[in-house]
Design brief:
Elements: E1 2-9, E2 23-26, E3 51-59, E4 63-70
Antiparallel strand pairs: 1-4, 2-3, 3-4
Length: 71
């Protein structure tokens, strides 16, 4: 089992201090509407890497953290 974590900045999703929350966890179909980098592993023997469990977090500044457990 291996965990893979990515961070990137999308200023379009920045919500500022107006909500009073430094970070929000996203789930459900909203995750399908957020751009995720197309990451691949050069030495991967399978055609597609699947993500079993994932965590999606958004900060006030628009920093996205995507973490998943690779199977």
């Amino acid at each position: 089992m291996m965990f893979f974590r990515q961070h990137w900045l999308d200023p379009r999703l920045a919500y500022g201090p107006s909500l009073g929350k430094p970070k929000m966890k996203l789930s459900g179909n909203i995750v399908d509407q957020v751009w995720i980098p197309d990451t691949y592993f050069v030495n991967d023997l399978t055609q597609k890497t699947s993500c079993a469990d994932f965590m999606f977090e958004l900060s006030q500044e628009g920093v996205i953290t995507h973490s998943c457990r690779l199977v």
